[in-house]
Amino acid sequence: MSPTTVAEHRQRVAELVGRMPVLQLPLDECLGLVLAADVIAPLSLPPFDNSAMDGYAVRAADLVGVPVRLPVTDDIPAGRTELSALEPGSVQRIMTGAPVPPGADAVVQVEWTDGGPGTITGTVTINAAVEAGANIRTAGDDVQKGDAVLVAGTVLRPAQLGLASALGLAELPVRRRPRVLILSTGSELVEPGQPLQQGQIYESNGMMLASSVREAGGIAVQLRFVPDDVDAFHRALAPYLGSVDVIVTSGGVSAGAYEVVKDALVSHDVRFTKVAMQPGGPQGAGRYEGVPVLTLPGNPVSAQVSFEVFVRPALLAAMGHLQVERTTARATITTGLTSPAGRTQFRRGAYDPSSGQVVTPVGGPGSHLLSALALSNCLIEVPQDVTELAAGAEVTIRYLQ
Ligand code: AMP
Ligand code: MG
Q1: Does the C-beta of 254 come closer than 6 Å to ligand 1?
Q2: Can you tell me the mean pLDDT for 39-64?
């Protein structure tokens, strides 16, 4: 049987995870989520003609022959809801953002007058003329009522949430965050902070995968490890089956004995395959009691690369992101490397985008080299048919930041 390709497994994972449902969420819960429908402006912005300056609302025609001295008949602070019409030959004091009174066609800024910030006096001298329309922000300048101001698929960042607020919207339609259960397996694992005995190791995949889920915008439920015991595995998952959207396990899927995940799930609707990649060959995907389950290999670098290649794009797509890929770049490698025939290799690299597109491989291909992973900021992708690359060769990198 020929191994599954990276692209085939990616597709399978994405299909399993599917799309999260759309719901209306308050704006303060929407940061980083994806808009699920176009936003049609329910009003224009600005909603009314208003002053761009502190100064005086005037009729431009009254200023011919400046300096002119004119009576001040009203005072309009921002927030005023009722206005008196501006009579010819008079002015009204007006503040930035205040509505322009009917009859006025321009605003003269206070600096061009002898008016001050105190209580208004009976008259003001205006020293410079303005054109009709000067210093007025007209209704609809920014947004016309009925415009599609934000389109479905937009990632909601601060500016988009500001615009929604300005339009008076308290909620937006978004796809909700997936709840992802992270379960590590292995009888050798010990929780950080606890004493370690000879032959045991601290559990690290759980923290790494849960953080990756959160970084992708999901909600991680980190359930710290079960031993290599099938009954313990089933018991650990049971309480979560009704409340999570995806289960991600690590460990227990390779070719040895005591492969707890394989043993527990093989009779369920889960298919275990060998994907043509290094690291991260042994993969499984399917459903456990109806819940999508993705089983990643246990070696920490394998688990993290598997998340990056398969799980992250699926979670982003589930939330409605149109862009699910990392930024890629072409770069030349500073040292040569070898790669197994017939497998896509993902090597860890240190890439400096400001240095002229050079990438330095960090550590070797070993999938236990966690410190090298921690020193890297990209994956170097070596295609399936390439077995050797010399220093200076050009490669594609996925930038992880
Ligand atoms: P497995 O896939 O279960 O055979 O594990 C492969 C290797 O990864 C073994 O050396 C395990 O000890 C290690 N490993 C598995 N799960 C974890 C984990 N959650 N944290 C740290 N190392 C792990
Ligand atoms: Mg194990």
Answers
A1: yes
A2: 98
Measured in angstroms, how far is the CA atom of residue 42 from the centroid of ligand 2? 56
Closest CA to 143 of 165, 167, 170, 162: 167
**Ligand minimally distant from the alpha carbon of residue 201:** 1
Per-residue pLDDT tens over the stretch 239-290:
999 999 999 999 999 888 889 999 999 999 999 999 999 999 999 999 999 9
The residue-averaged pLDDT of 331-357 equals: 94
Closest ligand 1 atom number to CA of residue 252: 3
Q: Which of 168, 174, 169 is nearest to 152 (CA)?
A: 174
CA of 253 to the centre of ligand 2 (A): 8
Burial of 119 by CB count in 10 Å (0-12 exposed, 13-18 middle, 19+ buried)? Answer: exposed
- H or E element, residue 71: strand 68-76
Quick check: CB of 186 below 6 Å from ligand 1? Answer: yes
Residue holding tokens 């031993």?
A: 227
Quickly state the pLDDT bin for 102 (edges 50, 70, 90): very high
The CA 238 to ligand 2 mean position distance, Å, reads: 20
Residue 91 is which amino acid?
A: V
Q: What is the SS3 assignment for 398? A: strand
Q: In percent, how much of the chain has pLDDT > 90?
A: 94
Mean pLDDT of the chain: 96
Categorise residue 132: left if φ over 0, alpha if ψ from -120 to 50, beta otherwise. Answer: beta
184 CB near ligand 1 (under 6 Å): yes
What distance in Å separates the CA atoms of residue 374 and residue 359, rounded to the nearest whole number?
A: 15
Atom 10 (ligand 1): residue with closest C-alpha? 299
Residue 300 near ligand 1, beta carbon < 6 Å: yes
